[in-house]
Design goal:
This is Malate dehydrogenase. Belongs to the LDH/MDH superfamily. MDH type 1 family. Keywords: NAD, Oxidoreductase, Tricarboxylic acid cycle. GO terms for molecular function: L-malate dehydrogenase (NAD+) activity. By secondary structure, this protein is α/β, with parallel strands linked by helices. About 40% of the residues lie in helices and about 20% in strands. The strands form 3 sheets. A 6-stranded parallel beta sheet has the order 3-2-1-4-5-6, with helices on both faces. Helix 2 links the parallel strand 1 and strand 2. Helix 6 crosses helix 10 and helix 7 crosses helix 8. It binds 1,4-dihydronicotinamide adenine dinucleotide. The site of 1,4-dihydronicotinamide adenine dinucleotide (NAI) has 33 residues, from helix 5. 1,4-dihydronicotinamide adenine dinucleotide (NAI) binds next to helix 5.
Length: about 350
């Protein structure tokens, strides 16, 4: 017989990933559902009680993923859509998660993906603007620093851009920072949350360890090492997969985690705060109008953009290195969209 605690753990396998509040009708679409991220992300969203309906789209393979995932014994309905059914896939959706596009191979930067992914993301955003103009859009496709401005400009052209409803998913950087810090200080990740600001690529990823009770004690070589690992953790995965792609499973986890946070906010839960890359006034005077910081999520999406807070001297240096690179990445996205 299973011990009572084990039964409880089995009965609530996703309780650590998802917390649920009021259940509403919430249809979520995944565009790129057949891919390395899309498949496990679809599975995790199927196990989120806040998702009432799941719409899976890809240019290949989505109906198969949908048939598979739909047998999981949770309440949501799952439908798969083929390449020519994008509009149907988007009908009535409240949240659109986009992991469509090519991933990195060893030696590539996220910016190397620009040429392929820019047009994929633009075309998908055009369809969202047409069919589900009020949907919240969560962009996973890299380079996030450029693809988010592309989506914004595409929606703007269509006359439906609402900055409160567009998010670049930087949650994997937060998840990595939290996990790596826990390892360094010998604590549980639940006790070592780290705020990560800036963007989502190498030097634009700025972890604020000084704002964490465990992180502020990490100094010297250990500090340099953990910052490098947070900024370039994605490369570890690309290298280990040896040509087979980049992070998919941890990214699916991060994508599902962010989606759950947004749904909790949309359902009226108060105090849901997490870093995400959004249209932001914080550095707009320097020509950088998208930036990741802690954002409070609420019934309208972005409820409040938090300031970056106090930085250590090292973090100020990291931020100084981030800003010009981020500015370039944003401009590249805007130029493409124009
Ligand atoms: P993958 O190649 O395994 O899957 C991509 C999927 O997108 C494929 O199934 C493909 O058929 C589909 N696709 C391509 N064009 C499409 C279109 N026009 N409409 C719908 N679907 C389309 O790639 P993976 O590993 O899933 O990565 C996807 C993206 O996520 C990459 O750009 C990658 O760099 C990015 N990524 C982002 C992270 C983040 O932290 N934001 C972390 C890891 C990856």
């Amino acid at each position: 017989m299973l011990a009572r605690s084990a039964v409880r753990a089995l009965a609530a396998p996703s309780s650590r990933l998802f917390s649920s509040s009021a259940a509403r009708n919430t249809k979520v679409a995944v565009l790129g559902a057949g891919g390395g991220i899309g498949q496990p992300l679809s599975l995790l969203l199927k196990s989120d009680p806040l998702v009432t309906s799941l719409s899976l789209y890809d240019i290949r393979g989505a109906p198969g993923v949908a048939a598979d995932v739909s047998h999981v014994d949770t309440g949501s309905e799952v439908t798969g859509y083929a390449a020519d059914q994008l509009d149907q896939a988007l009908e009535g959706v409240k949240v659109v998660v986009i992991p469509a596009g090519v991933p990195r191979k060893p030696g590539m930067t996220r910016d190397d993906l620009f040429n392929t992914n820019a047009s994929i993301v633009r075309d998908l955003a055009t369809a969202v603007a047409r069919v589900a103009p009020e949907a919240h859009i969560l962009v996973i496709s890299n380079p996030v620093n450029s693809t988010v401005p592309i989506v914004a400009a595409t929606l703007e052209k269509a006359g439906v851009f609402n900055p409160a409803r567009l998010f670049g998913i930087t949650t994997l950087d937060v998840v990595r920072a939290t996990r790596f810090l826990a390892g360094v200080v010998g604590a549980q990740p639940a006790d070592t949350p780290v705020t990560v600001i800036g963007g989502h690529s190498g030097p634009t990823i700025v972890p604020l360890l000084s704002q964490s009770s465990h992180g502020k004690g990490v100094t010297g070589e250990a500090y340099e090492k953990i910052v490098h690992r947070i900024q370039f953790g994605g490369d570890e995965v690309v290298k280990a997969k040896d040509g087979a792609g980049s992070a998919t499973l941890s990214m699916a986890y991060a994508g599902a985690k962010f989606t759950n946070s947004l749904l909790r906010g949309l359902n009226g839960e108060k105090g849901v705060v997490t870093p995400t890359f959004v249209k932001s006034p914080l550095f707009a005077d320097q020509g950088i109008d998208f930036f990741a910081t802690n954002v409070e999520l609420g019934v309208n999406g972005v409820e409040k953009i938090h300031p970056i807070g106090a930085l250590s001297a090292e973090e100020q240096k990291l931020l100084d290195a981030c800003l010009p690179e981020l500015k370039k990445n944003i401009a590249k996205g805007k130029d493409f969209a124009a």
